[in-house]
Specification:
single chain; about 325 residues; mainly alpha; about 80% helix
Length: about 325
């Protein structure tokens, strides 16, 4: 547009140059700009090819010397857009547990573009692999400040805080994550677990009850809620949520049915009802433990033949497991 105005429009240049000369100058400038754009994109493409090829070779480096030689072949001076490729190369090294080499690549990426979140997140992975948890924490926090919706980073950082027994920090972190992903089950269960470890079981129960109706994975929340209610001695409510888990997802049937059996047997002193849930669990997943429990219940109920058969089945399953080992 600037060239067209210069060549054909009425402006200050029209008083200095004739129309013919203005058109010639505009044509030359346009040609020069076209060449400049072509050279820039050609350079970018060659740079991309070089980085892509090195990205294939770097994970194959067997020694530190090999790696240094490959790093020396990286385009210099680096540009901010190179950080993306450095991060990809480092990811391959991290997958090979080559944390030291990955850290070097990620330091280069951060130096090239300090606003790019993923090199910080990945260097935290490297620091964690090297056992430097304090540096890992700082890197995760920096990465999350740049990309506050990276849920995996919240979970990984939460694991570090938990391992260091910094449970209050873990709680604050998970609550921060819920501002961005209020229905993420992984975050909810991590927060619930943290509250339990802080001896705040009532808060954990209230959290799960509040989030259950809007959850996209209600079975996991219902199962965990049932466990907490049982620990709190509220077996009647626990039964309600165990039954919900059974109705909505057959994969949770074994654990829920086993828990219900224990509630009816140990707390309600109702072995007949407990046996019903044991049979349900055994039909879904026949284990030595569930048949041992069935034998115990049958003994209490005076069902001697069924008790012997259950114990026989438990021994058979246990022996099969031992032989496979």
């Amino acid at each position: 547009l600037v060239f067209l105005i210069f060549a054909f429009g009425s402006n200050h240049a029209s008083h200095l140059f004739s129309l013919c000369w203005r058109r010639r100058i505009a044509a030359v400038l346009l040609a020069l700009s076209t060449v400049a754009v072509y050279l820039e994109y050609t350079n970018r493409y060659k740079r991309y090819e070089t980085l892509t090829e090195l990205g294939k070779e770097i994970p194959k480096a067997e020694t530190v010397v090999d790696l240094d030689n490959l790093i020396d072949r990286l385009p210099s001076p680096g540009k901010p857009q190179d950080a993306y490729h450095y991060n990809l190369m480092a990811t391959q090294l991290l997958k090979q547990n080559n944390f030291t080499a990955a850290k070097r690549m990620l330091e280069k990426a951060i130096a090239l573009d300090s606003s790019y979140a993923y090199p910080y997140i990945n260097i935290a992975w490297a620091y964690r692999g090297l056992g430097n948890l304090n540096s890992a924490i700082a890197a995760y926090e920096k990465g999350l400040s740049l990309n506050p919706v990276d849920i995996d980073s919240y979970l990984l950082l939460g694991e570090i805080y938990t391992a260091l027994d910094s449970l209050e920090k873990a709680e604050e972190l998970y609550r921060r994550a819920l501002k961005y992903r209020k229905d993420d089950v992984r975050i909810l269960l991590s927060l619930e677990s943290t509250l339990y470890k802080l001896n705040r079981l009532d808060e954990a129960i209230s959290l799960l009850k509040a989030k259950l109706p809007e959850s996209n994975d209600p079975v996991k929340l219902a199962s965990r809620l049932a466990v907490n209610l049982w620990k709190k001695g509220r077996s009647e409510e626990a039964i309600t949520y165990y039954l919900q888990a059974i109705r909505e997802d057959v994969e949770h049937l074994y654990g829920a049915a086993t828990s219900l059996a224990l509630i009816y047997w140990q707390e309600r002193k109702d072995p007949e009802r407990a046996l019903e849930f044991v049979n349900l669990a055994a039909a879904v997943k026949p284990t030595a433990d569930i048949f041992t429990l069935k034998g115990t219940l049958c003994e209490q109920l005076g069902l001697k033949d069924q008790a012997r058969e259950a114990y026989r089945k438990a021994g058979e399953i246990q022996n099969q497991g031992s032989s496979r080992k």
